[in-house]
Design brief:
The protein has about 375 residues and is an alpha/beta fold. It has 2 domains: about 240 residues, 3-Layer(aba) Sandwich (Aspartate Aminotransferase, domain 2); about 120 residues, Aspartate Aminotransferase, domain 1, CATH 3.90.1150.10. The chain is built from 13 helices and 15 strands. Strands 1-9-8-5-4-2-3-14 form an 8-stranded mixed β-sheet, with helices on both faces. A 4-stranded antiparallel β-sheet has the order 10-12-15-13. The model has no long low-confidence stretch (mean pLDDT about 95).
């Protein structure tokens, strides 16, 4: 926490605006949009809700397809299914570990050839780093497809000097408890398209018709963010740049202390952007390191230190069995060899040293 949250929440309670409407909610949306350099933002209950609303505004039909990154959390694809559409998964490229533009081009060419283009593209900025949005947008534009950027993990990162989430039709952010700033739960849908945001806000408030009584001509959702949580978001937004700096420092310490070990690599930082280092991820080559990412995870767990595998690719998830997939084995390789180390903004030097010593004790003991 920044230290200002309680003050802003006290202002909410004093004003009695405790519903999903109020001055703090409006301020949070305005200040968030200003930070990104976009004209419109709508605060909602989660990043998943934000993506669902954007997809809902495309009026998808059963059987429609939406292209999606495979190397991501399931929340990037679940809303596609909510709308009765089918996700088609694309593999990562090695420069940023995000959606491969070449595979996107190949898939769209194949879809065009059989006369069945998808309805949209959902690109995910994985682990706090932007995808190559210029390349992706240029390809999608040739087929007149809207691009949605799931930047849930990447707030505060940049792409070619611009904030992530500013180079597409709709961008999605998350304020879940594990994100770089948090409102406990919450999300934001952002766009340059005023019509999109107005319709999304209407859908997020149960799609009530503009008449002086309760009438509903379409199905809506209870997705609006609470004014209380928006007050937390205002305080968090004030320290976002400090949080990014803290995460980048954690990443730099790991690189300095672990980067020289045999068989230990790190998630790349693409030359076209600046990552927020939401998570610091090592890649372990068992043949050179003498250990595996899972063995390191278990050793950390034995010291009461939590570490996690990276996302299991969505095309490998049982819930998405039967969905089409295009790519090689990049995402599969990352899942097998990578480990997310403790990366929180509040980590102390002693915390980092505990992690580092566990990893150093394992690496190189039994080289192949």
């Amino acid at each position: 926490m920044s230290g200002r949250e309680q003050q802003y929440i006290a202002e909410v309670f004093a004003s009695n605006w405790v519903a999903p409407v109020g001055p703090q909610l409006t301020r949070f949306e305005e200040q968030f949009a200003r930070y990104l350099g976009l004209p419109y933002a709508a605060a909602v209950a989660s990043g998943t809700a934000a993506l669902h609303l954007a997809l809902r505004c495309l009026d998808l039909s059963a059987g429609d397809e939406v292209l999606c990154s495979t190397f991501t959390f399931c929340a990037s694809a679940n809303p596609i299914v909510y709308e009765g559409a089918r996700p088609v998964f694309l593999d990562s490229e090695r420069t940023s570990w995000n959606m491969d533009p070449q595979l996107l081009e190949e898939e769209l060419a194949a879809c065009a050839k059989r006369g069945q283009l998808p309805k949209a593209v959902v690109v995910v900025d994985i682990l706090g780093q932007s995808a190559d949005m210029d390349a992706i947008n240029q390809i999608a534009a040739r087929y007149e497809l809207p691009v949605m950027e799931d930047a849930a993990e990447a707030l505060g990162a940049t792409y070619r000097g611009r904030q992530v989430g500013t180079d597409c039709w709709a961008s999605i952010f998350s304020f879940n408890g594990n994100k770089i700033i948090t409102t406990s739960g919450g999300g934001m849908l952002c766009s340059t398209d005023e019509t999109l945001i107005r319709r999304a806000v209407s859908l997020a408030t149960q799609a009530r018709d503009p008449v002086p009584y309760y009438q509903h001509s379409t199905i809506g959702y209870n997705y609006r963010l609470s004014n209380v949580l928006a007050a937390v978001g205002l305080a968090q937004l004030e320290v976002l740049d400090q949080r990014v700096a803290a995460r980048r420092r954690v990443n730099q310490v790991y690189r300095q202390r672990l980067g020289g070990l045999p068989g230990i690599g790190f998630a790349p930082e693409a030359p076209f952007g600046r990552a927020n280092c939401w998570l610091s991820v090592i890649q372990v080559d068992p043949a050179r390191s003498g250990t595996t990412s899972e063995q390191i995870r278990l050793a950390l767990e034995a010291e009461n230190i939590e570490a996690r595998a990276v996302w299991k690719p969505l095309h490998r998830q049982p819930v998405f069995a039967g969905c089409r997939y295009r790519g090689g084995g990049v995402a599969d390789e990352l899942f097998q060899t990578c480990l997310c180390l403790p990366s929180g903004s509040a980590l102390t030097d002693d915390d980092l040293e505990r992690v580092i010593q566990v990893v150093r004790a394992l690496v190189g003991r039994n080289p192949a």
